[in-house]
Design a protein that fits this description.
Blueprint (H helix, E strand, L loop, with lengths): L1 E2 L3 E3 L11 E10 L2 E10 L6 E5 L2 E7 L4 H10 L1 H12 L13 E4 L2 E9 L9 E5 L2 E6 L4 H30 L6 E5 L4 E5 L4 E5 L7 H14 L7 H10 L3 H11 L7
Parallel strand pairs: 4-6, 8-10, 11-13
Antiparallel strand pairs: 1-12, 2-5, 3-4, 5-6, 7-8, 9-10, 12-13
Bound molecules: zinc ion.
The site of zinc ion has 5 residues, from helix 4.
Length: about 260
Amino acid sequence: MIGLLNELIFSRAPSPTRGAREESERSIALQGHRVDYKLVRRRGRRGVGLKVDGTGMTVAVSLSTSVADVEEMIGKNAAWVLKKLDEWSHRKVVPQTWQTGAALSFMGEPLTLMVDISADTTRRRPHVEQLMGHLFVRARSDAAAVIEGAVVDWYKKQALPHFAQRAFFFARLHGLTPPRVFLSSANGRWGSCNSRREVRFSWRLIKARPALVDYVVCHELAHLRHMNHSSAFWKEVERMCSDYRALKAELDAHDHKFRAF
Ligand SMILES: [Zn+2]
């Protein structure tokens, strides 16, 4: 898998059962710094989860965990929290807007969003078209959720054939049986694979330039031979993608730009 370790989980957290969830914005003083965080309480949650990313710190606990326990846990991990916040401070996720003129990135190229409200009642679904550096979205409403949904669908539609084609190409080139390729909606883990020879790529990766996609594809294909990050694994990555060190560094440094939506 590829991803940044930005989450500490202190005991196994079962998937939350349906029902109560509370969110509140809090702050705490850590080594002389005021740190704001979001406290998320969920019924059925066990243990405390600390997460730091481009949106700040999130703490996930059960409904019954006291604030004192939460603060004690954060305090015990103050060094980690401050280090992660510092790492993220220069790579904040800029919130995406969904009006005409908004900037998007597709395969490493900028695209300008153009929104057009259509009165055509025969066309129920939004129409999306890429043309000359613009992404035209025609929909019956310009509500952000409608435009975002249409754009995300369009990205996914472009992403799957591209990832599948690259995986097929590199697999054939390096004597591997091509894996089955799926999309994931992970926001932070660009690729993953399993022993059933299924490889998943986050559709968000299609925002990155093709060389970065190729690195992630080769990384996951190398896992078909080595299900770990051993030196043998990295040798295999290098064999498929000789430039992988620079590409990995570029992806790590810029991936926050691909996370806004
Ligand atoms: Zn990996």
